[in-house]
Amino acid sequence: MGDAPNQEGPSKAEDLEGASAPAELARLLSILNLEPIEENLYRGTSPQDGWQRVFGGQVIGQALVAASRTVEGRNAHSLHAYFIRPGDPTVPIVYEVERLRDGRSFTTRRVIAVQHGRPIFAMSASFHIEEPGLEHQVAMPAVPPPETLAPLRDALAPYLDTLHPFVRTFFKRDRLVDLRPVDLKHYTTREPLAPVQDIWVRINGRLPDDPAIHRCALAYASDVTLLDTSLFAHGRPPLDPDLEVASLDHAMWFHRPFRADDWLLYHQDSPTSGGARGYNRGLVFDRAGRLVASAVQEGLIRGD
What we know:
Helices cover 18% and strands 35% of the residues. By secondary structure, it is an alpha+beta fold. It has one domain (9-129, 192-302): Acyl-CoA thioesterase, double hotdog domain (Porin, Beta Barrel), CATH 2.40.160. It starts with 12 loop residues before the first helix and ends with a strand. Residues 170-300 form the Acyl-CoA thioesterase 2 C-terminal domain. Homotetramer. Belongs to the C/M/P thioester hydrolase family. GO terms for molecular function: fatty acyl-CoA hydrolase activity.
């Protein structure tokens, strides 16, 4: 996306068709395949899967695609985003990119997502040239490898009858992201638990090799489970129909190269919640134990 001279890159439909594309991967690539409609303007669509609001990770991923289309020779190293209004999945989203700065080492972009004439999302993203520097990182948690764990949908199959119909429908659907939780207890109990979870994640299918696509795909996946973590301490399961839950803001940092179609461990915790908001953090490690990305999110949590 960022390296092609025409600034459209491998997210063009003709380039994506060559990728290994099972149904789930084809859907994800279609989501990330924005249509250029004018200089610095792009249009994205949403899956017509019956949800009332656009998934927040989709908007993050599409906004990063739009920003990356305007940058050459540099990779995104951070993004900071705010969800302003719920997205309407029945109409396209227009992404307007503002080129704030093209410096010697860093490039800065601002992206506004618009529907029905009003902004629904705002994001700033920074891109950096590759250069050496001091390195250190925390250790990856000791967890079972993903091959020993069942996909989330299969793991929850014995419990489906105990879940709320809304939750049951969600987990029965095909998933664009393969999720393999280390522990399923928070899905099946209302017992208060420590607000920590470890989930192996990867995109279903092989992505093109462009590093920008892998960053955008991980940005999409980073929003799937992060806000759930703040519910654990209160004994509330993900997608609890008695709660109003929505992402308010989202930040990410990309530390090292990675592939989003290979297994990544998403270690998440929630240090605090209060004032109808839950605060959540995530560290993303690759199979070799390298810390490749980090995420932070605050979300709205309303209900008793």
